[in-house]
Design a protein that fits this description.
The chain is an all-alpha fold. Helix content is 97%, strand content 0%. It has one helix at 2-66. The chain is rod-shaped and about 100 Å long. It has one helix and no strands. It starts with a helix and ends with a helix.
Length: 67
């Protein structure tokens, strides 16, 4: 009887550990996807800023040539 009780407690502990580990992995994956999505948005914003800076440089160069 003690052996069955010990095995049941051990199995319940292992199952609880597995569920907890699964939850942590799911949280980490969600954070990773969020960070990757934020990274993509940041790249788009930086590309837009770079394009606008190049346009300003061209305008400044054109103004300098006119003067």
């Amino acid at each position: 009887m003690e052996l069955i009780l010990t095995v049941a407690v051990l199995l319940a502990t292992i199952f609880g550990f597995w569920v907890n580990l699964n939850n942590e992995v799911t949280k980490i994956k969600a954070r990773m996807y969020h960070l990757e999505d934020s990274d993509a948005e940041l790249k788009v914003i930086l590309a837009d800023i770079s394009t606008r800076l190049h346009h300003i440089e061209i305008l400044l160069a054109a103004n300098k040539i006119k003067d």
